[in-house]
Amino acid sequence: MRCSFIHPPHHLLAMVVLVCTVTISGAQQRYFAEKPSITFFSDGVVEDITAANQKVTSIFDALNGEIAYLMNVKDFQFVNKLMQTHFNEKYMESEKFPKSSFQGKVTGFNYGAGGTQQVKAAGKLTIHGVTRDVDIPGTIEVSGNKIILKAKFLVKLEDYKITVPQVVWDKIAQQVEVTLDFVYRPL
């Protein structure tokens, strides 16, 4: 029941380079997430599991569609603190894999068009030290000078080498639903 997102230092370096590149070129197209939220939900036999992380760093270039986010896995907050401890120690191994990330490109977005637009982000998702190519469907809405991005997708635990102890194997879902809700403002 874990969902983490980056580890290798080269991803952090790529994020820094992307931020610097975005900062140097054109002002109106670069956006920074001022209200980021990544939540996950797992439908458990005994108890549903949900957690939220609102300490995510994300940038979006509305002109070319480049997008990235980075977060600390330990920043996921649970209602049940024992679940939070198990999540970090037994599933996500947060000491060993402290970060999680996504880096990619959004397609289907037209900054000049109004309303909510159906988009897709294709890129590299890193969870639990494993990086995989993903396509994430979502929506983007331009509201004044802000951009609102929403997405929902499934993460299979086995795809990211997240193991569930045999003793609870039949009580824990083997995939989690991840929801992104980012409100961006101009950088």
Description:
By secondary structure, the chain is mainly beta. The chain has a single domain, classed as Lipocalin, CATH 2.40.128.110. Helices cover 14% and strands 47% of the residues. The protein contains 2 helices and 9 strands. The protein has helices spanning 9-24, 81-91, and strands spanning 30-42, 49-53, 57-61, 66-72, 99-107, 116-127, 130-143, 146-156, 175-186. Strands 1-3-4-5-6-7-8-9 form an 8-stranded antiparallel beta barrel. A hairpin with an 8-residue loop joins strand 5 and strand 6 (116-127). The longest helix is centred in the N-terminal third of the chain and has 16 residues, at 9-24. It is elongated, with a radius of gyration of 17 Å. 36% of the residues are buried. Mean pLDDT is 86; it is low at 1-14 and 16-27.
Overall pLDDT: 86
H/E element order: HEEEEHEEEEE
Quickly count the helices.
Answer: 2
The CATH topology is Lipocalin
Report the top-level CATH class.
Answer: Mainly Beta
CATH architectural type: Beta Barrel
Shape: elongated
Order of strands across the biggest sheet? 1-3-4-5-6-7-8-9
Major beta sheet summary: 8 strands, antiparallel, barrel
In angstroms, what is the radius of gyration?
Answer: 17 Å
Total number of β-strand segments?
A: 9
How much of the sequence lies in strands comes to: over 45%
Unreliable residue runs: 1-14, 16-27
Number of domains: 1
The proportion of residues forming helix, as a percent range, comes to 10-25%
Compute the separation of the termini in Å. Answer: 34 Å
Judged by helices, strands and strand pairing, the structural class is mainly beta
